[in-house]
Write a structure and sequence with these properties.
- By secondary structure, the protein is of the alpha+beta class.
- It is built from 13 helices and 42 strands.
- Helix 5 packs across helix 6 and helix 8 runs parallel beside helix 9.
- The longest helix is centred in the middle third of the chain and has 20 residues.
Length: 800
């Protein structure tokens, strides 16, 4: 089947200088907004932001986890500044220890990460009262309005935040690139403006002031940059509601930005703020693309890596100029001094969430675990690092043949981002729950305004079910022009006078490269066929891998190489930078995760680039090579498995100390949604198990995971009487980071697991299909199937 698209004439220049979001003082490389994209230092800028809540992670781990985020391609860290976490008791505002906002900001600055504090005062974030302290709600006032009785404590809170971030603005060399006001407030533009002015008067300063824009938001004109979102699943919809249409639409290419489903559990579904922000004045920017999804008691969806990555790539094809993920790093709720701090029915919210766990199935988990989605997204972020400045200004063009509706699973979904000279073709053939069919004998035809026609691939290819990818069109690679490649660009590297374009093959599609013959004088390949057709040099039959390096002498006397990695290897690629060698911690962008470095094979020399397997075993530095690069000294660390430690999980003895009693009777809230069992039920009805952790495991600094395979409904872990971890059953192993626990308490008390069975009449709980109990895994029984100690989840490598 031939899919055809005629590109329109180039769009007129975007509006610029019309959105004075920023404060008067700015850095030497100012961040500005046009109607289609952002700029930094006058150049197009495509930020990639990831949410990480510092108060949901021990401060001793912040630096390592930030570096993991950077290694995954995150350039900006977004974080809620959660009021109740800092001022649970009125008048006692705490910024100590795990609440040290300033230290978190300084770490972002140290590692060249931008920072977006989302200062509320209401933030949601699945936090008690949406982040408002209990004492605030006990006042005689109208929260989230201009009621003076509400604004008075807000002013004091903003002043405290402003003091913490003093000097952290970009004018003083700080990391703050944006500040979000409130969250999901869709119908009170005047109050949003009041909050922005209060924040500015408190000393907070940023080039961008933002607000969430879903639900037909009303914003004060040209005061707040609207940011959008989209999730592959929901925890906040009804248990029996099926996969929501508001999620399904994110797997189509469309120019509709709004998502009325986000936050709809906290507003009437018939209520909208208005027509929404005018899209002709603002770029398509996001802050909440689903990096995963939380579990509520009544609805526990499972989100796969492909779900997250296909949604993200589709948004780029739709026209996104800012990829923002929520969450990129999961977390654990702090223990409140007065109350538990999670969203719950007890606090009047429609959803019951775990007391402690906010893992979110994120690319980096609650304890810093690497998830497959981390590697999938990093592949896209490498693309944006090197080509984002080209993609951001490009228009998104949709083909004439569009899906007939959200139930259309037959029409191929694709789009092109392009300018007058080049472009990128995006295809998404994946969505959750409802597999899309494969498309045999497929070609794409793209007609450019200058009369150039491209038809690719030269031999029709089958687009596999579940595939999603981006292919380059008319890409200039130094002196050569790559007309197309049926492989996704990863990055460019420079080595010994030549440019190497690294590409990733798509599983199930043979890589094909087409070069403009007029830009090439000689091509050398390690295999495959080279033919000349219609002024183009076609390279086919190439076996993708670390040896698939096509070397090109260009017509202007230069040298270029194209490296086509297989899909699996491409997902283990990290970038190294010369300045990494001057950092104490070498996690920054990449050359730190390895069993043994896989070198690029090139007679022309070795590029400053490494292909690295995903981490599996503990590592140690065994040597280094230093050589001079044009931009400084690059230290290449060779990392190998530490021989004294085993990668295999170690089984742990588990002792049943009390069998489960009858499951607690199901309960519901006012909305009829299932409610989590009461605390007393864990004392009377739960099965109880005891685990004793070896001392040498507790003494390890590198983070051992306790992984528990279990059946039941809800599980909690204790050291003595202290709750240290919890999980709702969703068919996934329960992981606990032992280095997050008090080692003395674990040595004294061991770890006690309490598991509640699922009541046989419980009908209001949605479990994903993969979690539905098999005969040997009946969740009406509360059983520990097994427990293992797993090797380190910590992969920072330190010099010396």
């Amino acid at each position: 089947m031939r899919n055809h698209l005629r590109l329109p004439p180039p769009a007129p220049a975007p509006l610029a200088g019309h959105l004075p979001f920023g404060d008067a003082t700015e850095a030497a490389d100012p961040i500005e907004v046009t109607s289609r994209y952002l700029t930094r230092g006058g150049c197009p800028w495509f930020p990639v932001s990831g949410e990480f809540h510092y108060t949901r992670c021990p401060a001793r781990h912040w630096e390592e986890e930030l570096l993991k985020m950077k290694a995954g391609g995150i350039t900006v860290v977004a974080t809620y500044v959660i009021w109740i976490h800092h001022e649970e008791t009125e008048g006692r505002i705490r910024f100590d220890g795990d609440r040290d906002l300033r230290r978190f900001a300084e770490l972002c600055a140290r590692h060249d990460l931008g920072l977006i504090p989302r200062i509320g005062p209401w933030c949601h974030a699945e936090v008690r009262n949406g982040g408002l302290p209990d004492w605030m709600l006990a006042r005689d006032c109208a929260p989230r309005t201009d009621d003076p009785a509400y604004l008075e404590p807000v002013r004091r809170w903003f002043a405290a935040v402003g003091e913490q971030l003093r000097g952290m603005d970009r004018a003083h060399g700080g990391p703050v690139v944006a500040i979000q006001i409130e969250n999901e407030l869709y119908d009170r533009p005047g109050h949003l403006l009041t909050l922005k002015r209060l924040a500015q008067h408190s000393g907070l300063s940023a080039p961008l002031w933002t607000a969430t824009a879903w639900g037909g938001v009303q914003l004060p004109p040209d005061e707040l940059l609207p940011l959008y979102g989209g999730y592959p699943e929901t925890f906040w919809t009804d248990a029996d509601g099926g996969w929501p249409d508001t999620c399904r639409k994110h797997f189509f290419f469309t120019h509709q930005r709004d998502d009325e489903g986000i936050g709809a559990d906290l507003r009437p579904t018939t209520v909208r703020g208005g027509a929404g922000a005018p899209t002709d004045r603002f770029p398509w920017a996001t802050c909440e693309l689903g990096g995963g999804m939380a579990h509520s008691y009544h609805r526990r969806p499972r989100v796969g890596a492909a779900d997250v990555a296909a949604l993200g790539l589709t948004k780029i094809g739709c026209g996104s100029a800012w990829q923002g993920y929520y969450m990129f790093h999961g977390g654990t709720n702090p223990t409140g001094e007065l109350t538990t701090l999670q969203e719950s029915h007890a606090t009047g919210y429609p959803n019951d969430l775990p007391v402690l766990s906010y893992d979110f199935q994120a690319p980096l988990g609650e304890y810093g675990q690497y998830r497959p989605s981390y590697h999938e997204l990093r592949l896209q972020h490498l693309l944006l690092e090197d080509f984002g400045h080209r993609i951001a200004p490009m228009a998104s063009v949709l083909p004439g043949e569009q899906p007939t509706g959200q139930d259309d699973r037959s029409t191929l979904r694709w789009a092109v981002r392009c300018d007058a000279g080049a472009g990128f073709l995006f295809v998404n053939n994946h969505q959750p729950h409802e597999p899309l069919r494969s498309h045999p004998e497929t070609t794409f035809g793209v007609d450019w305004p200058d009369g150039t026609e491209i038809s690719l691939p030269s031999t029709p290819a089958a687009i596999p079910s579940g595939a999603f990818f981006c292919w380059p069109l008319r890409m200039r690679v130094a002196g050569a022009q790559l007309e197309w490649a049926t492989a996704q660009p990863v990055c460019r590297v420079e080595a010994d006078g030549q440019t190497v374009l690294v590409l990733a093959a798509v599983d199930g599609i043979d890589p094909e490269l087409a070069l403009d013959a007029s830009t090439v004088s000689l091509v050398r390949t390690p295999g495959g066929d080279i033919t000349r057709v219609d002024g183009r040099i076609l390279i086919t039959g190439l076996a993708a891998g670390t040896d698939a390096l096509v070397e090109i002498d260009t017509a202007d006397g230069g040298r270029v190489a194209l490296l086509v990695l297989d899909a699996t290897t491409a997902r283990s690629v990290y970038r190294g930078r010369a300045w990494d060698a001057r950092r104490l911690v070498l996690c920054s962008e990449g050359v730190v995760f390895d069993h043994e470095e896989v070198r690029i094979h090139s007679a022309a020399g070795e590029p400053s680039f490494a292909v690295l397997p995903a981490p599996q075993v503990p590592l140690k530095v065994t040597g280094a090579q230093v050589r001079t690069e044009p931009d400084g000294v690059f230290t290449r660390y060779r990392l190998t498995p530490a021989p004294e430690q085993s990668a295999a999980p170690v089984a742990l003895a588990v002792r049943l100390t009390r069998p489960a009693g009858p499951a607690p009777a199901p309960k519901t809230n006012a909305l009829g949604r299932a409610s989590v069992p009461a605390d007393k039920d864990f004392d009377t009805s739960a099965a109880e198990y005891r685990l004793d952790i070896p001392d040498d495991v507790l003494d390890r600094p590198d983070g051992v995971l306790l992984r528990i395979d279990w059946t039941g409904n809800v599980a909690r872990a204790y050291t003595g009487d202290t709750l240290v971890a919890d999980q709702f059953q969703a068919g996934q192993p329960w992981e606990i980071g032992l280095d997050r626990l008090d080692a003395t308490a674990v040595r004294t008390h061991g770890i006690t697991l309490r598991l509640l069975p699922l009541h046989e009449e419980e009908r209001g709980v949605h479990l994903p299909p993969a979690a539905e109990p098999a005969p040997e895994r009946d969740h009406r029984e509360a059983l520990v199937i097994g427990a293992t100690l797993n090797t380190t989840r910590s992969w920072a490598v330190r010099r010396g």
